[in-house]
């Protein structure tokens, strides 16, 4: 978007979808894609492409409601050019990028749009805006990259008070690297690529690569308990975040960077996942690592998903922990292969060999394992993994698919916008559970989604899954689901499928989300996940720190 | 102690000191000890040993104040024999084992003793006692092994309400091991040795060895954010604790065992370190590991503490993380050698060699590094560490000292009781900070302690230190201090030295405690550590969850 005001250095995604203007998914160079989609969700892509219905001028955006006093105060605090009330900017800040968000934004469904978007420039300005919002009894919603898919960004529909969206995009610098300690001080609005670029220049990496990497911020990662593709090595954001600064209603919170501490209930771990309800994260002291000597991602095929899961579990117990453990189920493997540009001759030969070995290619599962460290360490990891893969009937297929995965790993969300144009809805739900429950969690969740499809008369509906992020005691399972709604209202259909999946998570020993936060989308399951007493404690925390419900109210619980 | 009631299966430490009756420190077989002590703190141990002044019958124990109603209710809940009001049991439950506690208990200084000790048998009984305490507006203080040194166990001196000490000692079983996930369900009152015994029998270990191991419980570890000697490999208790059950005023809190989760501010991390202020921990889902194939502790000498610190930092960055990284400063090295039974001929030769190499033996520092895992992994770790040690001018001295350390690591607290008999006070303070601050943290803290001694006219006063627990971004520094008070009141002397050390921690980028909790002893530094806004959030949490201040009031903040 081209905003004409002073905040225009701040990058935003398309108001109507994922990513940057001009970049979109197309399948002309992917011969297997159309047949795959026809089979998967019954959608015929051979006809003429529908237009993308994204004419901003047709939307009716509610007028901004904000007092002159508050406008004057905000402008006095951050500067006139950084207080914005234009419609497009306000719409960009209304939602995240869940399928519910995309459906609503495309339909011009805006029960409540922020009244003003404020772009602060430093910690003090953020603190002043927090103080102003509380004093004026306004609602303040922090905004990072806007990639959230759990409803963490939207104003409560019935909110009558002024709603301020606080965009952190101007605060995008690595302020300092303590090279002795491996600690970088980073402004919260720094987006993934900017962060890595600034660190890489000096030989460092934070090693955090969530799917949203290209359009999410470190502050957003902290606020939602994000996890990245290499978290097996680098840790989740809760491990990476050693210190943090937050503008709270009680004044600036400063948790100094510490390797570990014994200071009672962890305030650091209260800020993690707090989605703006305790304050606005302004700075993060992130653990950083020297860029590794070697970094390799190898691909493997397993004859079944069970075999792949068992191999990943065994790999997670290795003394020489790999950086990525990932295995897709057969459906996701099919999807991945359908988005490839062309199959190599080598692939055809490989599949012949596997068939001859008795593999059912429809059950075959693609896996990626990442290796990082010194040359010797990487070679050791590889040989240990090779042995485990072999034990579980798998076969290594080299670096090729891994390189492709590494390059394309952030592109999937574009496919969702593409599907929407064609009347198809897709979203994701992910969970984590103990190893002992993982197969139940997988099979019962697939079943739950399919039962929901059947009940809704959706035939065929799609659900696929991969394991990512292995821990000593369990792993993350990441489900993607999609269906064609055609002329029907997609929202109740989505609700039904999403709910079935979420309930299956809880019923099978999983959590409501491994790394996508609670927001409004998952809050119905919070009490089941952490027990009613757990919800009560969390509600107590919010009530005590934000009695006026000024800080992103209605999220989490 | 020999209690005559039904709870007598519950093991308690001596009411007047550390450990079990009949075990005490003696130095007849340690020829270097007396000269060392003379030099270190000016105490002459050659005279006749003073008697241990521990005649319980001479103490004046305040009478129990509890209503008949509450007594009846408690007995109805846990059974008559598990509700105890006898004086010795109540005194045992009054304090932990800090030097302040030991001085007071020996002096019969009891401003407030619990009125009743209750021994519940299961989760439901604990919940009922919590509910009864809240309903009766009584104060409830959970009690594990009683080893706390931060004042977390004592009733507030001016407390006028009935004080209940809830002893978890009957709940001491490993209830279940989920062998597929590496998760043990353990009752909170299980003490270290009982825990490891039950796990080892089935081939598992939790790998958590705090100094208090022999007399502390897993519930206590969680309640204080404990760390153990092998935490470099097994993680601190916050890593080990994957799920937890807590009896809270809002009902039973059940956090299911999960490898990771994205459910907002972490309630699990609020329970960790909560010291009974949010409820009573009844069960822990602990991450457990298969007993390692190999376990070796090797000893090294470094020419200076700086060289040792630098080596430990470099070791912490290895891909093949060792299980223990520890280096003592020159003073602690001297202390360790003074408690040895006899020096070997080999040692004398070694020291000659080192002298010839130009080492100043008074600056020499002893280090232990632990190696665990498969045979290959251990051998790899050893050779990588060997190289780093060499680079920093250190020298390996084999397994001998490590075996000794492994056997004697839990005995140090007995020396404190011994010293007390002789009019000497000793205690510990530990912290953690980033690597970049660690030398300042060390030298300035030593200086702060020595300045305090000088101001107090204590000459010589003792302070020594070791690094334990390395992390990617920093490490723990563990200080032990001791002085002879003779005829003076030791308490203000202790306060002065302790305060100087704690303030130095904060002033030099360290935390108030790495693994000993806040309690009452460290709460004066909480706002400086986590900033006033952090304290405010924590106070808000406690006020919201325990508005009547029934749960261990006065601790943390």
UniProtKB/TrEMBL annotation, chains A, B:
GO biological process: lipid biosynthetic process
Cofactor(s), by name: FAD
Binding residue positions for FAD: 211-217, 224-227, 275-281
GO molecular function terms listed in the Swiss-Prot or TrEMBL record: alkylglycerone-phosphate synthase activity; FAD binding; oxidoreductase activity
Residues reported in the UniProt entry to bind substrate: 416
Active site as annotated: 478
Ranges for domain FAD-binding PCMH-type: 110-291
Entries under Gene3D superfamilies matching the protein: 3.30.300.330, 3.30.465.10, 3.30.70.3450, Uridine Diphospho-n-acetylenolpyruvylglucosamine Reductase, domain 2
PANTHER family from the UniProt entry: ALKYLDIHYDROXYACETONEPHOSPHATE SYNTHASE, PEROXISOMAL
Similarity comment text for this entry: Belongs to the FAD-binding oxidoreductase/transferase type 4 family.
Protein name: FAD-binding oxidoreductase
Originating organism: Microlunatus elymi
Phylogenetic placement of the source organism: Bacteria, Bacillati, Actinomycetota, Actinomycetes, Propionibacteriales
